[in-house]
Structures are given as structure tokens and as C-alpha cells.
Amino acid sequence: MEGFKAPVKDALFVMNELLGYEEHYANLGYEDATPDMVQAIFSEAAKFAENVLAPINASGDEEGCQWNDGEVTTPKGFKEAYQQYVEGGWTGMAQPEEFGGQNLPYSLASTMAEWFSSANHSWAMYPGLSQGCMETLKAHGSKEQQDMYLNNLVAGHWTGTMCLTEPHCGSDLGMLKCKAEPNGDGSYSLTGTKIFISAGEHDMSENIVHIVIARLPDAPGGTKGISLFVVPKFNAGPNGEKLERNAVSCGSIEHKMGIKASATCVINFDGAKGYLVGEENRGLNCMFTFMNTARIGTGLEGLSASEAAFQGALAYAKDRIQFRSMTGPKNPNGPADPIINHPDVRRMLLTQKAFAEGNRALAIYAMQLVDIAHDSKSDQERQIAEAKLAFLTPIVKAFLTETAQESTSYGMQVFGGHGFIKEWGMEQLARDTRICTMYEGTTGIQAIDLLARKVAGSKGELLNIFAQEVKDYCLSIRGESQFNAWSNSIEKHVDEWLQMTGEIMQRAAKNPEELGAASVDYLMYSGYVVVGYFWLKIAVTAQQKLDAGTDDAEFYKAKLLTAKFYFDRLLTRTRSLVSSIESGADNLMAMTEEQFNIV
Fold it and tell me: What is the pTM of this model?
């Protein structure tokens, strides 16, 4: 997005003032991640996003990727930008030094991933998929597999993918047909077709490493018979040497609504050589390492779109003049007033701002949990972080991407008719972002994961762990009288959340369809409450800074005013969600298939 400015200041506010990242990094032994070092890294990342990625965003969308006889060419400037990214050392920031990485925290690298996606969603997907590939091989790959692939992946010479979906099965992975036959030498021959493979083929790296699920001979049916394999485009030697071409090919690329500069590929495996990752028939368990990383990354894509849409809409609203303000001229020397003076335009801008900044706090908090789960020396700390992360991951993925649909729609609406025109960039944002609620598991899939697997599956324990954190915080600020109304509101919502969960479980015991009927509304309710908790923390922190004296008072005053907007106008959306949840499953399931027909 041309004119995009990385929100470095807000990210540092969340990290340093809201979440205590300096102490967090020190406790985990990240001595190099000092405030000065973080500031310097962020400054360079902002320059890369603003000066390298943003200028090729619209042109990349216009040109798209080109497929020719199995080879994919990315748009002009994409390959060169990736080379700058590699030369800058960005690919291995959060990877271990033993594989050539810089051993910096996951949260540091992921915070900047938001900005890269804001600047150029399509481009950011290429290195983004590699991170999940690396994490999977680190967690589940053998020493031999790590030696074959990780150094080149960490260096950025090779990129990675995740190959799940097949033409006949989307999220129902138990239906997969891709098969793996043992070769007798420790390798396997994989045969089958995968679709919707992001970055499955391109010209930006020397090799592409596919993480693939497939079924072994005589494997059990369904998800219990899924195994995981690493299958490269070019075979690799024991020390990462690039060898002969493997039997992996790109059959075509998809013609899509958005992210047109990201190659979404049909990948054919025709007896391709691969290696088993982890244990036989335990592939789905291993795959969740990749999928959870990808789900948080997709949530960041939603956040990045909300930020970009807000920035574009705000700049336009300050400049565009239409009609007079209802309270008198604000631009007396001109024929009309800037549209930012009109209440409805402010409603849209404040919604975008509240989602971008509140969702950023949630996202960076989730990244902090990842750091702790990976690196804390305390078993108890790791277990608590993992529990909170398990609960929050579907919320981060779904709520941040669903609210991005609203934010990007408002981006177009603020521009009026110009929002529908390509040159302004708003319609591209809306098109690019629409996919985020679909891939890595649709909103419905995330909602069932939250309600059925995480909440019901843990008998409410995961919800209770996070709910207790919120209640403890509300209790801790009881003396901050100016925030009692907001604090009480959050506490009441948490109590309602717990009660409503119990009621859903009771109904589901009699009719399992109650879980599916309630799930999406339940997830969105959860998202509004969780982000409300962070807006409460933001407001308290901002007031403390103002009380202590600051040279940046307007920044903190804006936080307080945005918090008020969130509590007055956005948190109140939970009322309609509760009504929908309480209505039950009958109004969804009573109609027969034939009654859906109108002709």
C-alpha cells in the first residue's frame, strides 16, 4: 500500500508499556533483545516495508503471477525484494544459531510480519510460509532431516510450504487420498495432488521444501491414518546440497479474487521422493505445529489489513472536502469541510482504529505466550502459556480476520465511489483480505475448535485459566475509580461468558448440533470480551503515563478516547451475540433441504 507507515510507535507502546517486554525478554535470556536493539531492528523493518514492499504492492496485484509449463514467475520487483530480505538477515531472526539464525525472540520477528503484510500482503506470504516449515522440522524432524533442510531454509535460500488440501477434501483432512509408498531405503514415494498451495512454485528461491500429509499403505481410515512427510522440489544431500529435480510439479495456479501476486498452486506429486517426519500415522499431531503458527500468522494478516485500511481512510478523510459540518464551518475558506468532521465518517474511522490497536495488543500478547511456551525455564510457566495460547489461537485467527472484513469495507466506504476504484488501493485491500477468514481453517472451523475442542474438550479449564487472568487484573485496578465502570463491565462479561458456556454445554449434551449452532457467535463474543480486556489495560496504562507527565500527551489521550469508543459502541455488540446464542439450534436445523429451494 503506497504511503503506508509502519506502526512502530504503537507496537513499542504495547510491548514496552503495556506488556513489559524488556523484563519479558530478560527473563527468557534474550540478552541481545534490548530496548535499543529492538528499536533499531524495528526502524530498519519499517524502512523495508515502506520503501521496498509498499511500492510494488499495486503493480504486483495488476501483473499477478504467470504460469508457463509448470514454472511460475512472480511480478516485477518481487524477486529483488526477496533478495534484499534475505541479505538483510530477516529470514532467520527467530531461528537458532546452530542453523544459522540470530536466536532472537519469535515475538520480535512476528511483530514486524504485520508491517510487511500491511505493505504487501501477497509478497509477505512467500517468506511467511517458510517459518511454519522451519518450526515443523525443528520440532519433529530427525537430525538428518534438519541437516538436509534447515540451514538453507533459515538462510532464505530455500522456502517452504504446507500441503494439506486436496480437490475432494478441504478441512476434512481424514478424506485425503495422497499416498506414500516406502522405497525400502528410508525414503518414500508420494503420489497425489494438492490444491490451494500458497508459494507452492515461484522464482524467488533456489528450492522449495513441501511439508505434506499423506497416507501410508494399510493406514487406518480418517485422521488416525495421516502421516507427515518432507518433500523437496529438488532433492537434497545430507548437508543441504541441492541435487536433482524431484517428481514434484506445478499443474497450474489459481485465478483469484485477491492476493494475485501470491502463487496459489496445484502441486502434483508423481512418485516424488520424501521422508517421514515424526511417527507413522501421527502426522496430524505434527502438522498442528505448522497450522498453529500459520493461524497466528493469518490473524496478523487481518490486523495488518485493518491498520492499512485505517491509514488510507484517515488520510483521505482529512483531505477530502464534502458538505459543511453540522456544527458550523470547519474550513471557512473552502467550499466545504473535510469529511473527517462528519459523525458517520468518524464512526468508521474509530471502528478501524479500535480494531487495529486493540487487536494488536491481543496479537502481541499471544506472541509473548509463544515466547514463554518455547523458552521459559519454568515448567509451570510453559504449561500456563501453552494453555492460554491454545485457547486464544482460534480467537486470534478468526476475530482479527473477521473484524478486518469490516475495517477494509469501511476503508472503501470512507472513500465513497473512489473506494471502488483501483488507483486508491482500498478495493485491493478488501479483495486481498477476504481470503483471511477462509484459509488455515474458516471462521466456522476456528469457532468449533474454540468451543468444542478447547472449551468443552478441556471441560472449561482453558477458558477458566484466561478468565481468571482477566478477573485478577480487574481486581488489581479496583482503586482506579475512573475505570470502575469499564472494569465492572469486563467482569460482568466474563461472568456471563462462563455462565453462557455452561448453558451451551447443557444443551449440547441433549443435542450435539447446539455446539455448531452457537460456535461462531460464541467466538465473536469471546473476541469482543478479550479485546475489551486489552482496551481496559491500554486505558489504565495511558492514564498512568498522563498522570506521571509525558511529552506525548495527545498519544495517550487518544488511547483513552478510543477505549471509550470501544466500550460504548463495540463491546455492546455482545448483546446481539448473546441473543443469537440463546436462540439455540432449532431455527437453523428445522428447515428441510427441499424447503431451501425457492423455484
Answer: 0.96
